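Supplementary Text 2. Reproducibility record for the structural model of the 311-residue chain.

All settings were left at their defaults, and a single model was retained for analysis rather than an ensemble. We include the record here because the model underlies the residue-level annotations in Supplementary Table 4.
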Amino acid sequence: MADKPTYTVSRIPVSTLGSGHELSVVVHRLEGTSSGPTIGITGGIHGDETDTVEYVRRFLELMKEQQFSGSILAVSCGNPLAYESRTRNTPTDMIDLNRVFPGDPNGLLTHQLANKIFEVFADECQYFVDIHCGGIFPTVDYVYLHGDEGMARSAGSKVLYVGASYEGSLAFCLEKRGLHTTVIELGGGRVNGTPAAERAGAALGRILTYAGILPGGLEPVGEQIVVDQMATVRPHHGGMLLSGLSLSQLGTILPKGVAVGTVVQPQTLETLEVLTTPFNRSVVVLAREAFSPISVGDYGFMFGREAATRD
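Retained model, structure tokens:
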């Protein structure tokens, strides 16, 4: 048995861009100190969710010093073109990578990229975790409760969303392929990302323990709230969003009709719109703190409907 995992990095070519630069999928592989299952991990599928790249980097650095069974395959930055431009979609064709899996080797650039990423995980992995965050301005905190329920619960988030992943998302397609999957939504926004990075590392460690890759048992995670519907509160006007919430309220429950944000016209400074909670028991899963610029239809806030209620 090896004392430490074996770490390798490989590049899978996707295409030559019009600039002449090569686009590739960079895959990090850690071979454990004994045989066992393989888990796949992705970050940076959306380019504005930059913190997830650091979540994966920190976790890999930690696992390089651990003894574990099986293998870890990680793509830390799934869409490097979107990452560079800090955009949700690929700037070349303006397609959301996480809506076109399993991809198409003969499609547009984003379809070809999706196809290469899908192939990294589809045949080799038994488990898969896709990590997302709130983006440049919002902060988020919940886990998708689908695929392997125990795996999702083991991540330790207070809020669990029972709805399925988007069709065309990587987790959705890998789940259909037979993998145990979950999606973590954690962190982001204009805050110190270190606490979220530490929580992401702990969540991944718990998932690896659940999968039998790391030794030991799982400690109870405490009370968890299940929501069965998500509502994104988007403004009808752009400007400056003045938030009425603090990030400490993520995971808390608010009644319907509570004012959570005000959109102000940046030139005249008049109030254009007040954003309110949508459900009788609205669980806060994505919020902005203090003030931030916002565009029409952008992510303002997200609320889950507690599964025990119907309104």
